[in-house]
Amino acid sequence: MLQRRIVLTGVGLVAPNATSYSEFRQKLVNGQSEISEIDLRYFGKAPAGVCTFPETLYRKKKENKKGTRAGCLGVYCANEALLNARLDLSSYDRSRVGVYIGLTEHGTVETENEVYNISRYDYNVDYWTHHHNPRTVLNNPAGEITMNLGITGPHYVIGAACAAGNASLIQAVQMLRLGEVEMALAGGISESVGSFGIFASFKAQGALAEAADPRAASRPFDSARNGIVISEGACIYTIEYLERALERGAPILGEIVGYGMNSDARDFVLPYGPRQAECMRLALAGAELQPDEIDLVNTHATGTRQGDIEECKAIREVFHHCPTTYVNNTKSIIGHAMGAAGVLELAGNLPSFNDHVIHPTINVDHLDPECHLDNLVLNHARTVPKVETILNNSFGMVGINSTVIVKKWLQD
Predict the structure, then answer these.
(1) Facing residues of 8 across strands?
(2) What value does the CA radius of gyration of the chain take, rounded to a whole number of Å?
(3) What are 101's strand-pairing partners?
(4) How many structural domains does the chain have?
(5) What is the mean pLDDT of residues 15-27?
(6) Residues designated catalytic
(7) Residues 118 and 222 in one domain
(8) Mean pLDDT, the chain, as a whole number?
(9) In terms of domains, do 360 and 234 share one?
């Protein structure tokens, strides 16, 4: 049966170096990192990606205070996505719009804050806020978006560790193809910089980046890499049927043509290259593409020693005879935005369809020989003859892998 074609028509985002799509792209092309040093309660100082954006543009300060940081990020990005798509929701039945948000975790920040609050009152739980339960239920960020926009269709959160952003796009495509919804808002959110526990856990694992200059701390593939830079951020897309997008003259950022998800089934933390290669092959098969038809691979690589090596092995296995397939990494510039990572990284590369410029992987002074990849774009942007297909990798803890392939839309 011929499947209906699904396209991305708008994007709204917040990143540690930008509050708009155009600004984000320009800073990525320039290799401009704005990772800074923050001082966390109980933990101390660490490099991190912190977002600044107009938090009261789309809802009042009172509503933000009642809600969550994740919800605030989500509401801003959902509204920006609709604006970018030139989409008035009144053109859709709001009961037929789905909201699917990928998260690595949710509730940690709120719980840590409440425990700290009652610590000032001798741990008297009478001072525990009555807002805690609705703030910490997993569907909260997606639900806050529906309340803000009056969407009455399904909303829920996809919990897939750091593969969650890609997983949300996959969910949206599947729900559209099933006919369960007519349009979707899908993406990922990270509020991780608000949690000292997340930083402490990565440090205990020996996986938290350190550097004298925080902008140089995130250095995937570099021989001196020493871990992850934790970032907050969010990115949400409007996703529609191609024919509906064409009817309203919508801008088309790209067409989702293939995807894959699988599990390592091996370890809580350590990634496994052979399963990552399998995931990429699943996506290629679904897209009916050969490896040499992919123009750009955006890597998941986070800056951990073994993680980067395993992914590079997988990419070499799948793309070993592909002289025109280029490779880059976005986390070197913005850090690791956890549940938002995959969708932010995809957004940063979609403009390559039009300008043929591939943004660089920065902070690579000495490439680790085990991370060698043909056509890895290092330290400076590169202009190439064409970019018509992008393969986007996102992998996560407990062995969850996701790959999404997006193709440039060319009028038939």
Answers:
(1) 239, 254
(2) 20
(3) 157, 187
(4) 2
(5) 96
(6) 162, 300, 336
(7) yes
(8) 97
(9) no
- Residue whose token pair is 């679904």: 286
Task: Among 222, 247, 272, give the residue marking a domain's end.
Answer: 247
> What CATH number is attached to the domain comprising 59?
3.40.47.10
Classify 245 as helix, strand or coil: helix
d(CA 238, CA 248): 14
Distance, in Å, from the CA atom of 233 to the CA atom of 19, rounded to the nearest integer, reads 10
DSSP 342-368: HHHHHHHHTTHHHH-EEPPB---SSB-
Do 67 and 133 lie in one domain? The reply is: yes
Which residues are bridge partners to 357 per DSSP? Answer: 383
Domain housing 217 = 6-247
DSSP string, 110-150: HHHHHHHHHHTTTT-GGGS-TTHHHHHSTTHHHHHHHHHHT
Same domain? For 36 and 164 the reply is yes
Give the pLDDT confidence score for residue 410 in this predicted structure. Answer: 87
Which amino acid is it at 113?
N
Q: Is 252 inside a domain boundary?
A: no
Contact 311, 271 (CB under 8 A): yes
For residue 411, the model assigns a pLDDT of 78
Record the tokens describing residue 326, joined without a space.
């280029």
For residue 54, CA distances in Å to 75, 80, 103 come to 11, 11, 22
Asked if residues 10 and 236 have their Cβ atoms less than 8 Å apart, the reply is no
